[in-house]
Amino acid sequence: MIGFVGGFSLGGGLGRPRRTGLRSGAGSARCVIAVDKGTKSDPYSIAVLKGDGAGPKVAEMTQSVLEALEQYADLYFKFDEVEFGGDGKELLLPKESVAACRASDAVLRAPQGLSREGENSAHVQLREEFELFAQLRPVTVYPQLLDLSSFKNSHVEGVDLMLVREVSGGALTGEDLKSLNENADFGETRMHYSRDQVERISNVALQVAEARSGNVVNVDKAYALHVSAFWRNALHAHFAKQTEGRNDITLSDLFLDDFCREVIFRPKDFDVIVTSNLFGDFIAEILAGLGGPLRVSPSTWISRDGLHVCGPADIYNSTAYPDGKGSPIVNPIAMIRSACMMLRYALDEPAASDIIQKSLMKTLEEYVTPDMVPSNGQSVVSAEAFTSNLVSSMEYMYQYEMVCDPTLCGE
Asked: What pTM was computed for the model?
């Protein structure tokens, strides 16, 4: 299984043979199609981890969007829906679900967990089972949702960032998930990285940068932590080796506290941000806050063998967060955006991803879901109706609109 960014591999394998097909119609939407996968005879195999709470519903809605995409992009999918999470089941990640993921071309993961209490979670088990080591988390402030931001429109309009976070090492490796003895007189958390781990995330950041502006900012605490100083040295050494003789890639550094201030003051000056596990956990929430309080951010996690696990960046149901009240909120936007990331990064189908992404933006011009505050006169509709309108927007985009260059406008 190989993950791709742009035209190159995140999984370390060779790129697949490609051909370009022009879809005819009233519009001129272009779709790039893989010769050997995604056809009727050999569809993409997608494992769908249904989750719990609102998870199964948003997974179903997202699957319906991908099924509708088939007629507009000449891409075909075979879905394997498997269990993931609680809802009274004994195992959070059954062995049948693991097998389905291993046999798939990519994984779609719905939210799971009504709270963050307890010693383990389905996502932690997933991370350990598949040795997930990198998280890509884009931060795009949609024009249709500008008024939901706490910042002036002019300050966040056009913000387009990509956080590349290492998630296998550092201080959030799962070692501290066991309950602390209440009578303990001493507490300790280890924060450690190997050169191999740093070089691996360096490769991901480099490849993401090559598909974007080429500007990478490393965020660390090198002046205060030995492990962070090691991180910086190893990262720079590997970048220098990989980019020798090139001037299209730049790597600069900011300390964590400085970055948190600067990204609020001037968010449009940043593009690709690479950081360690613990720092990335903090930074992700700061970046997401640029666009407002909505939990609609997508993400993809990458395994050592290139498998992508794509799902909402907020891995739990809404009830697990401080602002969550009552029943889990059913909002398919984060899951649908994650499907776009799956198409773009895991399957190397950027034009197909772009059809959904542009259709989502068109839908947001007219409709929002009940948990969203309409800011531009949009109608409030159910999550199911929102998804149906998105599918209708896909038909409109296909018939009448030029789809933009997928190398320039995709998250």
From this structure: 0.88
